[in-house]
Amino acid sequence: MTQGNRQGELPDEAAKRKAFGTGYELWVGLAIGFYVIYAVTELITDLVHEKITLPLEFESEAVATLDFPGADATLSGLTQITVATTDLATATLVLLLIAKITLILTFIVAAISIVPIIRDIAKGDPFTGRSITALGVLESFIAVGCLVYFGAMVLGSNMVSRDLDIADDVGPGVTTVLAFTLLGVVGGIELLRRCYKSGQKAQEELDGLV
């Protein structure tokens, strides 16, 4: 048995515990990292080429008809479009950038917030005060980030349709389904935080009986 291992724990078990802990953090970090790199690269590339991508809800065929060599097609529903920044007002571009940057920052903060939770789970002691605090921070940042993103994207999308003179034919790219989905995520995190608090209380009561 090597020095520093827990009492009664075999070396390979200690190595497996450490490997799994590091692995969880690594995979979560890589997933968030890849998304952030992709989002930042896409944003910078678009700005360099003086364009920006955003979702719009097409509600009319008047501005959504596509001409193909063999037939015609019509855009409908939620669709990503790319607009030249020179066609947009400065205020419109600022709102869209706020929405995109807020989404990126929310993912970064979320990744940092869940690290203590993963470490405690890997140690076999998930119901800690540190994990509960981390869940509270995660919930707060996601809620605030979503509010800022939705507000900026709705206003920005409406101003894009105004700048392009298609306000009567399209709607904002933030749908109620997406809003309720993210609301469910926030509610799920709060439910998990309360479960952790109950688990911590039960653990303390059991420790007092032993």
Automatic annotation (TrEMBL):
TM ranges: 26-45, 93-118, 130-150, 170-192
Keyword Membrane on entry: yes
Family matches, as InterPro entries: DUF2975 (IPR021354)
Keyword Membrane found: yes
Record keywords: Membrane, Transmembrane, Transmembrane helix
Signal sequence interval, chain numbering: none
Pfam families: DUF2975
Protein name: DUF2975 domain-containing protein
Classification lineage: Bacteria, Bacillati, Actinomycetota, Actinomycetes, Micrococcales
